[in-house]
Design a protein that fits this description.
Layout: H1 11-20, E1 29-33, H2 36-53, H3 55-59, H4 75-88, H5 102-112, E2 118-122, H6 123-128, H7 130-141, H8 170-193
Helix pairs in contact: 4-8, 5-8
């Protein structure tokens, strides 16, 4: 088992790797998709956290969180400069910043792999009922169902701070949600046109706006 969100952007490499090792026929793919605004906020917080621990490493990447004056860039400015232009098509989609453009990446997975071996769930589904999500995953993997409760989701990301770059207004979150909505609709249609295994929810649960501060 290999679990990381980074693989989303490299389906061709994944296929090549498993082909080289003769195990492509055994590969099953499991994706959990989070509402894009909250995913972007989470990713931003991680970038800030990593920068504080290793400024040189993250400063060398395209995924910058440092403003011209050397201060930490606000979430709003990072989105306005890096993500929204890609959504609007004024800049090309980058591997680093386009992670929430789900349909853009998943379409290629559907082209390369048999759809019945790709299970797509929503983050909200998993969060609302972890046991049910695990039951569906075990069924997808062909493993026996567990009778006792085997999962308890809790908040592990405790990157909390009083700094003002952490305070993201609901107004901006709503703006970003609206910017992402055409991409979300593209995802819903892609999943509807390419039905997956029986364990998936159809239609795919719609992402809901929920302001978190």
């Amino acid at each position: 088992m290999d679990a990381t969100p980074n693989h989303m952007r490299y389906p061709d490499r994944v296929k090549q790797l498993y082909q080289q090792h003769g195990s492509l026929s055994k590969l099953k793919i499991f994706m959990v998709l989070r509402e894009p605004v909250q995913r972007e906020i989470s990713a931003y917080k991680h970038r800030v956290h990593f920068y504080k621990n290793d400024p040189a490493a993250i400063a060398a990447t395209e995924d910058k969180v440092i403003d011209e004056d050397g201060s930490i860039m606000t979430f709003e400015k990072a989105m306005e400069l890096q993500v929204i232009p890609e959504i609007n098509g004024t800049t090309s989609i980058s591997n680093l910043r386009g992670r929430s453009f789900y349909a853009h990446w998943i379409r290629r997975w559907f082209e390369l792999f048999d759809r019945k071996y790709i299970l797509v769930l929503s983050y909200d589904e998993v969060k609302a009922n972890g046991d049910e999500a695990v039951r569906r995953l075990l069924h997808f993997l062909g493993l026996p169902e567990q009778k006792e409760s085997i999962i308890e989701l809790e908040r592990l990301n405790k990157l909390v701070t009083e700094n003002n770059y952490w305070n993201i207004s609901c107004t901006f979150q709503r703006k970003l949600y609206n910017v992402f909505e055409p991409l979300n609709q593209e995802l819903y249609q892609l999943l509807e046109d390419n039905p997956g295994p029986d364990m998936e929810t159809r239609p795919f649960p719609r992402f809901r706006f929920e302001c978190k501060q």
